[in-house]
Amino acid sequence: xxxxxxxxxxxxxARPPLRILLTILHLAALGVLGAGIxxxxxxxxxxxxxxxxAFGIGIFLLIGLVYALFGLGWFEVARVGSLYRVPVAPLxxxxxxxxxFSGWARSLGRQVIDGRMWRALANFALACIAGVIVLRLFxxxxxxxxxxxxxxxxxxxxxxxxxxxxDAAWAPVIGALGVVLSAAGIVGLALLHRTLSLAxxxxxxxxxxxxxxxxxxAQREGAVRAADLERTRIERDLHDGVQPxxxxxxxxxxxxxxxxxxxxxxxKDLIAEAHTSTKAAITELRQLARGIHASVxxxxxxxxxxxxLASRSHxxxxxxxxxxxxCSREAEAAVYFAIAESLTNAAKHSRASxxxxxxRLREGGTLWARVEDNGMGGAQVQPGGGLDGxxxxxxxxxxxxxxxxxxxxxxxxxxxVPCAS
Length: 421
Hints:
Layout: H1 8-12, H2 16-50, H3 57-84, H4 100-112, H5 115-147, H6 150-153, E1 157-159, E2 165-167, H7 171-200, H8 205-259, H9 264-292, H10 295-300, H11 302-312, E3 317-322, H12 329-348, E4 355-362, E5 366-373, H13 386-396, E6 400-404, E7 411-418
Parallel strand pairs: 3-4
Antiparallel strand pairs: 1-2, 4-5, 5-7, 6-7
Helix pairs in contact: 2-3, 2-5, 2-7, 3-5, 5-7, 8-9, 8-13, 11-12, 12-13
């Protein structure tokens, strides 16, 4: 799945008269609605402060105000981006890695001090002020056009600005001048709005490239860290599992070789023991290879791979996968191994008796998954641990990772990965 974004070249090829007309319409609409919107926000703020000490009711109003401001900022960023067809990143909620209420409160605090949201709100306020002026200039233009034909009515004088009277003979000149100045003012405000909006809301090309470099650097570091953790895990599994078993097989066969002439029965038992250990080693190697790469994931997709994973789980797993199509191999692999590691942790460490896995392919091309168990909770991301490996693998795929595991349970893990990662 690929996405396309507008470029500055596309914006420059749009017809200027049409773009100016659309800007004027935007400003006129904001001039009508802006006062009401800011009136409601101000009222919500005042009511929140007034009721802050009345059983704490005001705190809910102030929290609602933060979400309302975010929604208004998101709308303004989307409006500017679509109006001028520039690559503006959508305004996103500020999140925190901390779980539970403290994480939510931290996210809310980050949202309050989000500079990009306040810049968008400032641009919205300026656009509303410009919209009010545009409406006044429009009525001035209409009035100027009307008085231009005053001599046809036969009146000696006509009403002028500020309650004055204008001689009918001068009315066409004043009307024509008013039409020109009003139209110039409207167009000028539209051009000024474009300049201010692109400077305040739209990211510059340099800022966009800087953000891309930062994101790419974080993904590269996550990929390197995930690969290092995976290598360490493979080495540990080989050293603690397969290697001792193969050494034992070798020693057993050596003993059998020594006894094969003197005590054939004992040698036969030793060979049978070595055979059993060899089959166990082969099973461990298969499990290790499956942990490195799930072939069923490439052949039949994420749904089938998760079904096979759930069938091998040591605890019952309720699986709910709804995907209309396929994602990229990297995205599906990241989500698959995140779920696999979560189920392993649930079986080994959390003392869970059941787990639930939910996977959705959301609009916008995002692969979302949630794993929840009924264990004792208390899971934390430890450097070099399995959850650290999940976090770095998801980060390398360009996604996000959220762990919520209070003491006493339950434990839930959510991941979001772009399909085109």
